[in-house]
């Protein structure tokens, strides 16, 4: 009986040890599964950030959120910090989520989620706050610029994080600027400048500053400044009729350009006032002569001024007699035609004369060389060289007779004979 009781005690003791070890192993395993999990968060300044902490296994152990200053925000579902921006979103044994509204740059930093086991387990989450750049401003042009002046336009934007990018455009074409970045607390102030020497072509040009940033997406900030450039006037006179005639309506337009616009313009004739104000009417920038006559001949001047200078242009008016133009109009055409014909004939004559002299000189020298051995003189050599020996004597008599005729020509007929020979040669060439 005692033996049975001893065996039963040993059995109970062994079972107790096994059960205790199993419980200890389960407790250690459960403790190892209790580990908080968090994620980093990035938000735009002024928006709301949600901070979430989770655990896969929890044996009723509390979770806690702390800010970068290690101040407790929430312990379980209990709010610990008096900040109206911080609210509880969800609280359970496996999750603790809080929200921070109207996030500021000062809220950025490392937040801690703690699980109060033995020992305490923690997980870190970094809150990144992006600063939105302020709308840009362009400075450097408080008054109209004068032509030739050096101007610097500066575009400034502040509050961006990270630093914003600035681009410049002149009308629709991008121009390069010089960028400068300065840290201001947790954000950045960015400036970009363009330097230019203005002229009249810049008057009315639109310079646009565009601020690009990750927080703005596809809608960047931009501001535009339209340049106003003052310059002295330019003047040009344009006339309405090419050939002014007596009795016609005639207008001279004074095209003046400047900034400020020169107003009004001044018309004069031959350095003095307009002589006939009844027929010579000034309307704005135009000078109108209602009916032209010969007394209107002269030099007309238009003068325009602004505070930067004066400029002028002149037009010499000559009024034609319409009857004279009608009578002499065909004569001019006839003279032009005659001149053209004379020039053409002269050129043809020079060409033919050159060919004539060149060919006969070459033929004479060549034929003289060919027949020099058998011929008593140069004429016979030329005739023999042509290969027509049967008629050599006839040709020789022909040339001798022609020579005798030339000798008996008077001086006044000699020129005619030469011209006649040249004309015959000209006719033979063109045939």
UniProtKB/TrEMBL annotation:
This is Cell adhesion molecule 2b isoform X4. It comes from Danio rerio (Zebrafish).
């Amino acid at each position: 009986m005692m033996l049975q009781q001893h065996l039963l005690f040993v059995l109970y003791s062994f079972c107790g040890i096994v059960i205790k070890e199993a419980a200890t192993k389960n407790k250690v395993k459960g403790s190892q599964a209790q580990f908080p999990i968090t994620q980093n968060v990035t938000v735009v300044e002024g928006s709301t950030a949600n901070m979430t902490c989770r655990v896969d296994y929890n044996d009723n152990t509390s979770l806690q959120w702390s800010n970068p200053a290690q101040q407790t925000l929430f312990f379980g579902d209990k709010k610990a910090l008096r900040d109206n921006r911080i609210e509880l979103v969800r609280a359970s044994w496996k999750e603790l989520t809080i929200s921070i509204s109207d996030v500021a740059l000062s809220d950025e930093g490392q937040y801690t989620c703690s699980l109060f086991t033995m020992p305490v387990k923690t997980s870190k989450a970094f809150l990144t706050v992006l600063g939105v750049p302020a709308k840009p401003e362009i400075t450097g042009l408080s008054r109209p610029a004068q032509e030739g002046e050096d101007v610097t336009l500066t575009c400034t934007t502040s509050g961006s994080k990270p630093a914003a990018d600035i681009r410049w455009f002149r009308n629709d074409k991008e121009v390069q600027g010089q960028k400068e970045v300065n840290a201001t607390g947790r954000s950045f102030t960015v400036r970009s400048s363009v330097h230019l020497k203005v002229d009249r072509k810049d008057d009315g040009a639109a310079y646009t500053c565009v601020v690009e940033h990750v927080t703005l997406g596809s809608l960047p900030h931009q501001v535009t400044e339209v340049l106003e450039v003052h310059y002295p006037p330019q003047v040009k006179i344009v006339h309405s009729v090419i050939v002014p005639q007596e009795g016609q309506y005639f207008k001279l337009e004074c095209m003046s350009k400047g900034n400020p616009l020169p107003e009004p313009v001044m018309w004069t004739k031959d350095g003095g006032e307009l002589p006939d104000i009844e027929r010579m009417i000034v309307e704005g920038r135009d000078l109108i002569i209602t009916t032209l006559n010969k007394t209107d001949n002269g030099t007309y001047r238009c003068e325009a001024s602004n505070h930067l200078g004066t400029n002028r242009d002149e037009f010499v008016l000559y009024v034609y007699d319409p009857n004279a133009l009608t009578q002499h109009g065909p004569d001019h055409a006839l003279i032009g035609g005659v001149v053209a014909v004379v020039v053409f004939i002269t050129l043809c004559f020079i060409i033919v004369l050159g060919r004539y002299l060149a060919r006969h000189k070459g033929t004479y020298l060549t034929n003289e060389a060919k027949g020099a051995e058998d011929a008593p003189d140069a004429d016979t050599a030329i005739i023999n060289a042509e290969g027509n020996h049967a008629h050599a004597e006839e040709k020789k008599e022909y040339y001798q007779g022609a020579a005798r005729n030339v000798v008996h020509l008077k001086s006044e007929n000699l020129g005619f004979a030469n011209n006649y020979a040249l004309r015959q040669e000209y006719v033979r060439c063109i045939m």
